[in-house]
Write a structure and sequence with these properties.
This protein has 220 residues and is of the alpha+beta class. It contains six helices and six strands, in the order βααααβααββββ. A two-stranded antiparallel sheet has the order 1-2. β4 and β5 form a beta hairpin. α1 (40-52) packs across α5 (127-147). The radius of gyration is 19 Å and the shape is elongated. The termini are far apart.
Length: 220
């Protein structure tokens, strides 16, 4: 299992996608996917750095931000190396609604950054979506430099060596964005948040299929 009983994520695997998340459906069919805004590798590295450094107040704040059950109890289990319900926590660490935007995937999207930061324009967003995007931007600015720190001695490269001051800084950033982010659902397909690179043409005989598939890119 990627998430150990001591709370450390030992490989870059993502947790299982939440079972109750469903993609939008359109006709003709478009392949939609869940795009991480803050890359999973950044989230995982910051989490690992906080746990390995025993920065327990920041770990508990991280757990509250991802809506974990009984954050204080989870911290006690991590400290004793007896973390339970690791599958659920792995999913919660990976798939937070506030960090996910549904959009075209594969050949339907141009310019996917992969494991890079997927910064979104606020153009075409509702006020609620705009506040979420802006809060995630602020959180990423606090997390990004920490994820790039050299590894902690005795740990793998995805476990940055974070000082007490760095842990306090990211804890403060998470606490500041808590009200705007905690418990938010994913941002579902919103065509106004995307630019059409190529108009699609449906098949005349089989309108559920594309003759020429459309291509989108996120608004700059």
């Amino acid at each position: 299992m990627a998430l150990n009983t001591n709370g450390i994520l030992t490989d870059p695997s993502r947790g299982a996608e939440p079972s109750d998340w469903e993609h939008s459906t359109v006709t003709p069919v478009v392949t939609f996917t869940w795009h991480h805004t803050i890359p999973w590798n950044c989230l995982a590295a910051v989490w690992n750095g906080l746990v390995a450094g025993q920065h327990w107040a920041a770990v508990e704040t991280f757990l509250r931000l991802v809506s974990a059950q009984d954050p204080a109890g989870a911290v006690r289990q991590i400290r004793s190396g007896t973390l339970m319900d690791r599958d659920r926590l792995h999913t919660q660490l990976t798939w937070q609604g506030w960090n996910i935007v549904e959009g075209p995937g594969g050949d339907f999207r141009e310019g996917d950054p992969g494991e890079g930061y997927d910064k979104w324009s606020i153009q075409g967003l509702s006020n609620n979506q705009r506040s979420t995007v802006q809060a995630v931007d602020q959180l990423y600015m606090a997390m990004r430099p920490l994820a790039a720190r050299p590894p902690r001695p005795g740990f793998a490269t995805n476990v940055p060596n974070l000082s007490a001051n760095e842990a306090k800084a990211v804890e403060k950033a998470m606490a500041q964005q808590m009200a705007a982010l905690r418990g938010k659902p994913p941002m579902l397909w919103n065509p106004d948040a995307w630019e059409v690179v190529r108009e699609g043409q449906a098949d005349r005989k089989l309108p559920s299929l594309w003759r020429t598939p459309p291509i989108w890119r996120k608004r700059a």
